[in-house]
Specification:
The chain is α/β, with parallel strands linked by helices. It folds into two domains: 242 residues, TIM Barrel; 62 residues. The chain has 14 helices and eleven strands. Helix 9 links the parallel strand 10 and strand 11. The N and C termini lie far apart (40 Å).
Length: 316
Amino acid sequence: MIRLKQLVLPSVVQSPMANCSDLPFRLVARSQGMRFAFLEMISSEALVRDVRRTYEMMRTVPEDRPLGAQLVGCDPAVMGEAAAKLEAMGFDLVDLNLGCPVPKIVSQGGGSKLLREPVTAEAIFRRVVRAVTRIPVTVKMRLGFSDGTGEEAARIARIAQDCGVDGIAVHGRTREQGYTGTANYEAIGRVKAAVSIPVIGNGDVIDGASAVRLRAVSGCDGVMIARGALGNPWIYREVEAALEGQALPSPPDRAERKRMARQHLELQQRYEEEPVGHLRRVVCWYFKEQPGVGEFRDRINRANSIEEIGALIDAF
């Protein structure tokens, strides 16, 4: 367990993922053992301007708790205002994004660009910590912009701690790496050694064994799962069992994968107004390593309706 101000996190948490960690994804994951998740990344500017699409991304239901919200931006005043708004809306934790590598975000001064702007990062931390009074504030970052040693992240982590931030999550890649290469768990350990607040490790956690290695090498207090959960909501119980030294649960068979893909599709219909292209992508997550998936994917990618996608799942 990870103890933060007025909140205890489980040792395994779900990362925010743009265009992935929406409400249907979270509800499916919770049904299979996920105990804490984040919304998709939220623009602080869009939130304070009450942009409709931003509120749609923040859709939730009572059973989708506890739930954190992650803000991206580079204006301390706007970040503080947006964080206070999230607290008032009832979210359980506010996270600040210093890790997004997407050029659009970086060119505007947000995400991983802040790793090179410690003065601005400090101003954001102080403003947000002052604005949020009842729930924890955390920061999610990469190892560095281009330096993979972890020194940039350690510097920012020390500043965050001094500003009253409650915890840190570190993705073991640089901004320049994007999602290529492998996560550097040793460098995450350097960030862990630099601060006394909890540090959650992130990167390449795809099963129980990788989670155990991340914790063993980095000494992190918890593990954050990202892409490893796409089409694999069973990962949370596996990782928790592995970290606790317990026997791993049996992997899902194809019937269980089909059942869960169907459930995910039904939740998408209920809560989201997504184009068929997004639904195709979501369904294919569940079968990416299954025999015959190539032909299945080809048929799914030609499907033009939710009903057709459902029938293809049943027939696979």
